[in-house]
Amino acid sequence: xxxxxxDLLTAAACGTHRLTDAEALELLRHADMLExxxxxxxxxxxxxxxxxxxxxxxxxxxxxxxxxSGCRFCAFYRDADDPDAYxxxxxxxxxxxxxxxxLEGTAILLQGGMHPDLPLEWYEGMLRELKARYPIHVHGxxxxxxxxxxxLSGLPVATVLTRLRDAGLDSLPGGGAEILVDRVRGHVxxxxxxxxxxxxxxxxxxxxxxxxxxxxxxxxxETVPERVEHLRRVRDVQDEALAAGHVGFRxxxxxxxxxxxxxxxEEQGGTAASGWEYLRMLAVSRLxxxxxxxxxxxxxxxxxxxxxxxxxxxxxxxxxxxxEENVVxxxxxxxxxxxxxxxxxxxxxxxxxxxxxxLYREVRRF
Length: 366
What we know:
Layout: H1 4-14, H2 21-30, H3 33-47, E1 52-56, E2 58-62, H4 90-102, E3 107-111, H5 120-133, E4 137-140, H6 143-153, H7 157-167, E5 171-172, H8 182-188, H9 195-207, E6 211-218, H10 224-243, E7 249-256, H11 265-268, H12 275-288, E8 294-295, H13 299-302, H14 304-309, E9 317-320, H15 327-330, H16 339-348, E10 352-356, E11 362-365
Parallel strand pairs: 1-9, 1-10, 2-3, 3-4, 5-6, 6-7, 7-8
Antiparallel strand pairs: 10-11
Helix pairs in contact: 1-3, 2-10, 3-12, 5-7, 6-7, 6-9, 9-10
């Protein structure tokens, strides 16, 4: 097929044209689905000619569910006096890490609520003990947590990040991005870091040599143009990091909002974004984010079959086996996969399965 959108897709996939916001919006709204998939796959293959799809064996460890943010899209958080509120004890945390290592896991994703009373020193102690005990990569504390700790301690973000890095923090996840547009954030998470504050944490992490990822939670109350604005802001920060010789975002992970058990469920309509909508967003993300090497499929929210199809919509990574996941599960969505099943899904998609670590270094080839 030929036409303006087909030509645009070809140019973006080949790297001869960088998509504008208006062009990305046009693709999201009007591009032929199969042409979009073909272009995103072509770009993926240009960036990753080895025809592999990676995944990691790790565990989400939520050290506390106590959070003062009270985001309207979240079914996981609790107030401090709720009967099921918790902070993991050291022994509980160590047991989770030991099980992860026993399952040949290489990392933990360490995140929690924005606890009103835990000081920075508590986090430093947790990290030091973990690293003293176990050879585990700690991928932890999204920008809202870092921003919260900076406010709580009265210290600059750079100081907080430096102290956590020196205590054992290895990399920073892209959690809490939602949509990086303050109209949306003011509605769904008014107590959380603003768009600029989220991005400023990431810029500081990049300056300090801390590798990060970026995410996008879509399908809530945002508009399609606001999704594109989110992509552009991520791309701009990545441009800045790469121009300065910093590590930047090593991956981008778009995932669909799960409305179950949340305050937004009725307002949003109670239904999650469809697989069709997810795949379209994923493909445009791959084409737009020409400076981010890795795009991750979100089988955790969409299920394993859509996760597999995502490998022909631009994704080159299947994310984590998810030994444990609590936040999405609290919204009523529970998909779990053993490593063997992830290997089969990748192989059946015509790609070579490769287990990686958090920094995308090869651990094992299947």
